[in-house]
Amino acid sequence: MLILGAKGFAKEVLEILHQNGDTEKLCFYDDVSKDAPDVLFNQFKILKSEDEAKSYFENMDPRFTVGIGNPKLRKQLYEKFSKLGGKFTSVVSSNAEIGSYGVNIGEGCNILGGVRISNDVQIGKGTMLYYNSVITHDVCIGDFCEISPSVTILGRAKIGSNCQIFAGAIIFPDVKIGNNSVIAAGSVVRSDIPENVMAAGIPAVIKKIF
């Protein structure tokens, strides 16, 4: 598998693959960082050009995942590397608890250890769920969202695409959060939040319109 990115969140994804026993042929990709080494942890090659990535997909392993947290960048990288021939692939920790019925996890998701997902949950393409988040029954999360550590999303809540919900936030049952919106850390969201805003507080209120 190719992990896009070689810093920060990419190292979290590496640990999932290590624990899952899936590091054979593993490489990273970083064509941005000038200080990026050629090899990470003295073991994993870092590719630095689109030609190298295309060759990797054709000759080594077509799978790739995004090791960067920002939703906008995740979507851009998905589109770019899919065109190079890559297959967008989910990376799910063996320490995550996932319901047995009606759960649909889209391609290219990253689900870290301690995450708990109940039954009848829909998670869109390219979304990331950080440590110890709890997603209860009948929740729907859109594409390319970032759900930070210890977030709780309660029954029937609906999260739009390209949203960021930061650490410790609680989303009440039946709440709807619009596309491209941000929920600040520690917020308690008791009513619907429209698209393209940042909300914060207890209860959460709109603080900024994008």
Description:
This protein is of the alpha/beta class. The chain folds into two domains: 87 residues, 3-Layer(aba) Sandwich (Rossmann fold); 107 residues, UDP N-Acetylglucosamine Acyltransferase, domain 1 (3 Solenoid). It has three helices and 25 strands. The strands form four sheets. It has an eight-stranded mixed β-sheet with strand order 7-10-13-16-19-22-24-25, covered by helices on one side. A six-stranded mixed β-sheet has the order 3-4-2-1-5-6, sandwiched between helices. A six-stranded parallel β-sheet has the order 8-11-14-17-20-23, with no helix packed on it. A hairpin with a 4-residue loop joins strand 24 and strand 25. The longest helix is centred in the middle third of the chain and has 13 residues.
What count of helical segments does DSSP give?
Answer: 3
> What's the arrangement of strands in the largest beta sheet?
7-10-13-16-19-22-24-25
Structural class: alpha/beta
| Shape call | globular
How many discrete domains?
2
Largest sheet: 8 strands, mixed
What is the CATH architecture assignment of the largest domain?
3 Solenoid
| Low-pLDDT runs | none
State the helicity in percent bands. 10-25%
CATH class of the largest domain: Mainly Beta
Percent strand: 25-35%
- Order of secondary-structure elements: EHEEEHEHEEEEEEEEEEEEEEEEEEEE
